[in-house]
Amino acid sequence: MNSAAERAELWVGAAVLAVAAGFLAWSTSGSPLTARLGGGYELRAAFPNVDGIEVGTEVRVAGVRVGRVAAVELNPQTYYAEARLRLPPEIRLPSDSAALIQSDGLLGGAYIELQPGGAPDDLQPGDEIEDVQGAVSLISLMMKFVDSQSSEDGT
Fold it and tell me: Which of 22, 93, 147, 151 is spaced 20 to 30 A from 42 at the CA atom?
């Protein structure tokens, strides 16, 4: 009986480890480590404001996740935040594509939306996306609205 109980505990332990390994594999898919080890290529984009964007943030085209942010660094010469976007090799973007920081709703996180252009030539690995729009602060928009309403009232 003791031997059967030990065997059952062994199988349960093995099942728990297998599930944990599965969760680990799932959680690191799309992480910077996976992006560096896996295939794909990087594009760069320099934003005036990357509020809400960090390593691992989703990169989407037409709302579909196609990649992740591999790194975000401040350029000390321009004071712009330079994001490196990791994309799979099958996603080729025209050279006049745009990168916009979007939010997932009022309280949601942010992501980078790539909008393909119409140029005949494609961006090459390491190229920079020139057409960018940084993050928009919801609080600053609300403050502008309040200020505009108070100035219309004559106060």
Answer: 22
Residues 6+ apart with CB under 8 A from 70: 32, 35, 36, 42, 55, 84, 85, 86
103-117 tens-digit pLDDT: 887 666 889 999 999
For residue 11, tell me if it sits in a domain. no
pTM for this one? 0.66
Among candidate residues 102, 77, 83, 91, the one with its CA nearest the CA of residue 32: 83
Neighbouring residues of 113: CB distance < 8 A, sequence distance ≥ 6: 60, 61, 63, 99, 100, 101, 102
In a domain, 1, yes or no: no
**Total structural domains in the chain?**
1
Domain assignment present for residue 93? The answer is yes
Q: Are strands 98-103 and 131-133 parallel, antiparallel or unpaired?
A: parallel
